[in-house]
Every structure is written in structure tokens, then in C-alpha cells.
Amino acid sequence: MATAQIQTFVYKGKDKKGKATQGEIKGTNLMLVKAQLRKQGVVPTSVKKKSKPLFGGSKPIKPADISVFTRQMATMMKAGVPLVQSFDIVGEGADKESLRELIGNIRDDVASGLSFGGSLRKHPKYFDDLFCSLVEAGEQAGALETMLDRIATYKEKTESLKAKIKKALTYPIAVIVVAIIVTAILLIKVVPVFAKTFNNFGADLPAFTQFVLRISEAAQDGWLLWLGIIIAVFFSIREARRRSPAFEAAIDKYSLKLPIVGNIIYQAVIARFARTLSTTFAAGVPLVDALNSVAGASGNAVYRNAIHKVRDDVTTGIQLHHALRSTDQFPVLLLQMAAIGEESGALDEMLEKAALHYEEAVDNAVDNLTTLLEPMIMAVLGVLVGGLLIAMYLPIFKLGAVI
Q1: Residue from 332, 338, 337, 331 nearest 313 by CA
Q2: Is 143 helix (H, G, I), strand (E, B) or coil?
């Protein structure tokens, strides 16, 4: 029979000294919460479920939350805590109501007799096929605590890699957006004020000033249209990427060729490939099945197709490093590490070393990119804002020279 989920209750009462006290406490039902309060020396006068907020609701569960959950479960299992009790402890300590509810649902399924991997497969939004397959492999081998530790390390490395990529892209994108907004405000609000003044000059304006005034007029007349076009293009690209595999492949292929950023994306994909294959192979998953999981976790359509080709070649009996070489998509270092790993029977260890190398390369590239972009972005901002100001003051300087 399924156990009730852990919920948050709000209480009021008196402590041992008779002073009024209030707060929040977690529990499965009202009676157990009251008993728990009495054990703590609190005489409850009012206990009720914590009401949900009218707007916003519970915070969504992010991949980083799943990473923390996996690490906590691995720690509990290594300490010898039974699986169901581990869910209770980890769920009680979760900050997000949605995460507590998710852990409670998994806990109930496991307590009712469903396997851990099977209960995870009921929540594909948070646990992908790779995660579930590894947990199932750990259960079948009787080494769930070891497997959870490997999965936790894999998730932590993956999330760290994602954070580095976001760090590389967020700063320049944010500055570019701010530059566009500032430029738009100048063109729509500031330049028209100068234009009214220039109408009283009675003289020809410099070509640069006339050019800026025409851009300003176009921006004033159609800024809503341009804003709508930008939003429509953004959502169209996102939807086309989701619906069209060919379009997704084209976007991913182009992203790998971008200056500077493309190299970071490339190294991140290679690091993710090596890390995922190392984790799955070390878990005892057959190489062909492991490559299936790795393809889904690659994060890039170009490499997903390449890994599928590698899987097909390996199925026919070709060694992994030869199959990787035939795609012309993987670096020489990874090929050499894979060849050494196959010859020595330590493929998972060599792939892990390759993953560490490329993860460190991504880290260094992100730091270098940030250092390089700062002066470039300041120069672009200076040209945009400074160019507008010069265009507006040129007629004034010209008038002063005539006087």
C-alpha cells in the first residue's frame, strides 16, 4: 500500500515555558505532525497544511536539482540506509515542494514493490533513458550504491559543463541585448529631439547625420513591427528546430563553425561523449547499447548522427577507435585514448581521462573568451553610442565653424 506524501504544515502553540511559538514542520499527516510537535515539547493549538501561493506555485525542478538528489541518494545508500528510508530523508530535506512531491511519488512506487529504475521511468521529464538504464543495471548487479555514485558524478560533471557553456554565452548576449535597447531608445526618443532643432538651421546637414536621422525615422515608424519580427523569428527557429531534424542538424553544424564559441561547443560535445560512454561502459552496459544512450545525450545533431554510425560499425565487429576515426568528427587525442583503452582492457578509464582533458579545455576556453570579449564589447558599445552622439553634434560643430 502506498505511503502518504511528505507535506508542509504550519503550526501555532506553546513551548515548555508557556511562551507562544509558531513555525513550519514537515510530515505525512496531521496526527503524526501533532505527535512530533509534542515530542519537541510544543503543545499545538493550531496545525494546518501550508497553503499554496496564489501566483507562481512551486518552483520547477531543474537538472541541477536532480543532480543533488542523485548525490544525496548515493550518500545515503553508501551509509547503509535502506532505500525507502533514504527517500524519506532526502525528500524531507528538499527545498522545493515540487521536488518533494516527485521524491514522494518515487518512494511510494518503490515501497509498493516497483523497482527503482521502473519508478524513475514514470517521470521521463526528469530522468532520461540513460539515467534509468544505469539505475536498472545497478539494481541487477546488486551494486546500486556504487552505480548511484557514478551517476551522481556524471550528472555533476555534465551540469558543470553546461554552466561553463552558459557562462561563455550569457555575458556577450546580455551586453548585445543591452546595446540594442540603448541604441533603440536613442533612435526613438533622443534623436527626434535633435531633428526638431536641426529643422531650424536652414542649412544642409552632414551626410552621416542625415543617415542617422533616416534610421531614426524608420525606427519610430516601425519599431513595433521590427520587435514583432524578431520575436516571430526567434520562436519560429525554436519550433523548426524541434520539429525538423534536418533544420536542427543544420543549426548544430553551423554552431560548431562559429568563431571562438564554436570551438568551445565542439570541446564540450567531445567531453560529454567521453564522459557518458565512460560511465555507461563502466556500469557494465554492452558497448552497442551504451552508444545508443550516448547518442541521445550528445546534445548535438551532427554528433548524434555520427555516434549512430559508430554504433552500426561496432555492431558489425569493427573496433571502436576505427569506427570513431571513420566519421572524421572526433579529435586525434580521443581516438588514441580509445585505441589504448581497447588494447589494455581499460576503455572506461581512458575515456574518463579524455573527458577530464576536454572539460578542462572548455574551462580554460571560457575564461579566455570572457577576457577577450570584454574589450571587444566595450569597443562595440563605444562605436554605437559614440557614433550616434557624433552624428547629432556634427551639425552643431559645423554651425560653430561657420559663425
Answers
A1: 338
A2: coil
